[in-house]
């Protein structure tokens, strides 16, 4: 990862549905070095510019297990996140920066316990609930190549078909 590469990422913007990288399983990050920190910054910029509350590295065109989140409580930068425990369930409509104008009802755990690496290479565990838990689960899905449309009922999928076709054509 070079300065030039980061420049390219910012110029290209958020990867939109239809690009294979959104379906790729992101690779584990062994160490957060300077390049990964730049990438975090680039991802945060893309997210804030799009007024989103989370972004996974796949959405910046890089299949690494990195995500940024800000649901109003400050910027979180995490690598290799994984859910240790889940509690409760809620179904709420969600959107996605890679699927403009698409909204899908998604059932997710209300509360989760997460283990991850922070940008200082420290292993952190924490609990999250409500909107933060939802955002984390959404971004972790991205790192596994999963999108909100995968949760849509078949009726909803038929309804979304035209919209998705238009997104794929870009
Ligand atoms: Zn998304």
What's the alpha carbon Rg, rounded to whole Å? 15 Å
Q: What's the mean pLDDT score?
A: 95
The total strand number stands at: 7
Shape: globular
Number of helices: 4
Level of helix content?
Answer: 25-40%
By secondary-structure content and strand pairing, the structural class works out as alpha+beta
Bound ligand species: zinc ion
Termini separation? 27 Å
Characterize the largest beta sheet: strand count, sense, and whether it forms a barrel.
5 strands, antiparallel
N to C succession of SSEs: HHEEEEEEEHH
Cross-sheet strand order for the largest sheet: 1-2-3-6-7
Explain what the structure shows:
The structure is a single chain. The chain is of the alpha+beta class. The protein contains 4 helices and 7 strands; from the N terminus they run ααβββββββαα. The model has no long low-confidence stretch (mean pLDDT 95).
Write a brief caption for the model.
The protein is 33% helix and 26% strand. By secondary structure, the protein is α+β, with helices and mostly antiparallel strands.
Topology of helices and strands:
Blueprint lengths: L2 H10 L21 H16 L4 E3 L9 E4 L6 E12 L2 E5 L9 E5 L2 E8 L4 E7 H14 L10 H16 L1
Antiparallel strand pairs: 1-2, 2-3, 3-6, 4-5, 6-7
This protein binds zinc ion.
């Amino acid at each position: 990862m070079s300065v030039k590469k980061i420049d390219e990422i910012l110029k290209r913007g958020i990867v939109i549905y239809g690009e294979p990288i959104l379906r790729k399983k992101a690779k584990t990050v062994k160490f957060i070095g300077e390049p990964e920190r730049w990438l975090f910054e680039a991802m945060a910029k893309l997210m804030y510019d799009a007024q989103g509350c989370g972004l996974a590295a796949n959405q910046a065109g890089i299949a690494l297990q990195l995500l940024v989140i800000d649901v109003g409580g400050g910027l979180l930068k995490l690598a290799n996140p994984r859910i240790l425990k889940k509690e409760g369930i809620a179904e709420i409509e969600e959107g996605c920066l890679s699927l403009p104008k698409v909204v899908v009802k998604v059932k997710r755990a209300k509360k989760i316990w997460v283990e991850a690496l922070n940008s200082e290479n420290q292993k952190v565990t924490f609990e999250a609930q409500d909107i933060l838990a939802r955002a984390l689960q959404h971004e972790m899905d991205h790192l596994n190549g999963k999108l909100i449309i995968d949760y849509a009922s078949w009726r909803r999928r038929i309804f979304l078909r035209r919209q998705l076709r238009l997104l794929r054509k870009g």
